[in-house]
From TrEMBL:
Active site: 165, 167
Keyword Calcium: yes
Top-level class of the enzyme under EC nomenclature: hydrolase
Source organism of this protein record: Psychroflexus torquis (strain ATCC 700755 / CIP 106069 / ACAM 623)
Lineage, opening ranks: Bacteria, Pseudomonadati, Bacteroidota, Flavobacteriia, Flavobacteriales
Membrane topology: Multi-pass membrane protein
E.C. designation(s): 3.1.1.32, 3.1.1.4
Membrane-spanning residues: none
Catalytic reaction equation(s): a 1,2-diacyl-sn-glycero-3-phosphocholine + H2O = a 1-acyl-sn-glycero-3-phosphocholine + a fatty acid + H(+); a 1,2-diacyl-sn-glycero-3-phosphocholine + H2O = a 2-acyl-sn-glycero-3-phosphocholine + a fatty acid + H(+)
Binding site residues for Ca(2+): 129, 170, 175, 209
UniProt GO molecular function: calcium ion binding; phospholipase A1 activity; phospholipase A2 activity
Protein name per its UniProtKB record: Phosphatidylcholine 1-acylhydrolase
Length: 295
């Protein structure tokens, strides 16, 4: 498993290098149309790998409350003995997408395949052999429609939906997974972008690894991106939309360009569900590292 993850990391780095994004001092920022090929002049055909979610490496990520005894409302998925986890570990994320079908439905839609992998690695924890504490795999099939509508001073540039699966690929009691139908709408104006993603959980006929996960991780995600010169701010908020117990999370990412899109990356997270194994565990984490691409 470690070998596969390292291969993926090297692959992503080579793609970045081949596109020469490290070879220029100018910060490369892309419009929403360039990222999602919305306008005719930005169409790029099918089966070409591009980036999707943020790609970063945080060699240092600190938690105020490590989840040493993961629990679930399903007793089969609850730990009985605590793990000796360090407060400091490494964290990284890889994410790619490719267009499967271009301009279907009378020329007004695209179908994409996306894949994101998030890793939390106890690389400094020698007493327990430096394990990967958690690996999350997230494939999704995305149906996207370009739009060009002005609402409340913002340009609604695209909307659609996705079939999303997320799991950690582990056996009991570590197993966590869920499926969602995710809707999305994306707005843009100048250097600002906003993505709204409400979802509905698709219930499984099999046993539930993580009952009530939507009451912790949430039912809605809002993402805000702002770029100015060498500075970028990415804010991701999730909310359960439950007025009795208003749970969720907030993640703030600040990036500063060192050379083109090689950026220093500071990430602060607080709330529930930083990873699937932590879906009902509340913590605050701070990570420092580098980001490789524009998003």
């Amino acid at each position: 498993m470690k070998t596969k993850i390292l291969i993926l990391f090297i692959f992503a780095f080579q793609i970045s290098h081949s596109q020469s994004i490290f070879g220029e001092d100018k910060v490369i920022t892309k419009s929403m149309s360039e990222r999602w090929e919305l306008d005719d002049e930005d169409k790029n055909g099918t089966f070409k790998l591009t980036y999707y979610n943020p790609v970063y490496v945080l060699p240092t990520r600190w938690s105020n409350n490590p989840n040493e005894l993961p629990q679930s409302e399903n007793p089969e998925n609850s730990f009985e003995d605590p793990e000796n986890y360090n407060q400091i570990e490494a964290k990284f994320q890889l994410s790619l997408k490719t267009k499967l079908i271009q301009s279907f439905l009378f020329g007004h839609g695209d179908i994409w395949l996306g894949y994101t992998q998030l890793a939390n690695w106890q690389v400094y924890n020698d007493p327990i052999s430096r394990p990967f504490r958690e690996l999350n795999y997230e494939p999704e099939l995305i149906v996207n429609f370009p739009l060009n509508i002005t609402l409340f001073g913002l340009d609604l540039r695209m909307a659609g939906f996705a079939f999303n699966h997320q799991s950690n690929g582990r056996d009991l009691p570590r197993s966590r997974s869920w499926n969602r139908l995710v809707f999305h709408a994306a707005f843009e104006r100048d250097n600002f972008q906003m993505y709204l993603r409400p979802w509905i959980r698709i219930e499984s006929s099999d046993k539930d690894d993580n009952p009530s996960i939507e009451n912790y991780i949430g039912r809605l995600e809002a993402t805000f991106i702002y770029n100015i010169n060498k500075h970028s701010l990415l804010v991701i908020g999730k909310n359960a939309m439950d007025f009795d117990e208003n749970r969720g999370s907030l993640e703030v990412n600040y990036l500063y360009s060192v050379k083109s899109n090689l950026r220093l990356h500071l990430q602060v997270f607080t709330g529930y569900g930083e990873t699937l194994i932590d879906y009902n565990h509340k913590q605050t984490t701070i990570g420092l590292g580098v980001s490789f691409i524009d998003w």
